[in-house]
Amino acid sequence: xxxxxxxxxxxxxxxxxxxxxxxxxxxxxxxxxxxxxxxxxxxxxxxxxxxxxxxxxxxxxxxxxxxxxxxxxxxxxxxxxxxxxxxxxxxxxxxxxxxxxxxxxxxxxxxxxxxxxxxxxxxxxxxxxxxxxxxxxxxxxxxxxxxxxxxxxxxxxxxxxxxxxxxxxxxxxxxxxxxxxxxxxxxxxxxxxxxxxxxxxxxxxxxxxxxxxxxxxxxxxxxxxxxxxxxxxxxxxxxxxxxxxxxxxxxxxxxxxxxxxxxxxxxxxxxxxxxxxxxxxxxxxxxxxxxxxxxxxxxxxx
Length: 302
What we know:
It contains 15 helices and no strands. It is an all-alpha fold. The two termini are 40 Å apart.
């Protein structure tokens, strides 16, 4: 008797075709906005102003990128964003690991009570005004600490780290104890090296969050020189504030070439968007091998 395979039936083939078409449509929906923005940033300004750019570039012009990368305020904001993102991600991973490790130990007294206490904070918070007053009272206004300390420990991240640490064989820690290793050495020499997938996954989510952070810098930073890239982009794209010596000079130089000024403004905005998203897109391929495994942590009870 011939046994029909799982994927040889009509229903299975129809399901596979449906999945393929659905994923293809989703892929196009995700790629199109980025491709559209990139096409406007390098297209001829007359075509941009007349709305001729839809998917692929019309003409070729990199003057907008030259102006964006030559503007001092954007480069300074770029540096601030990198500083906030790297520092915030490092502190988040460090503090989350230090919090999750003792909660993963069965011998730690009161770990269940502490876990419940931390979980409650996921559903109830003080609100915006108490948070602002707290930052102000602690003297962290207009400093980097106002951006990275409040979000350095997330309860959800702690739970994920704790679950990952619990999945590490207890025999490894016991053998390390017998050899004379303490908790600090076990954490940094054994537990964390075995937790690279979850560290890479949470690190990616965290650095993207800091990179795209907009509201906190707008709320806590008063010095324009400390503003991150997202705040500068808001002024450039939404408010239409074309400040900066390089931008003003670039607009003047571009007008002399006979290009369309309004089209150049649009290209300039889109070039700034591409420049701001580039580093995050470049980070993902290096941690992709850890990403799939990391997001499955805790999905299977061990």
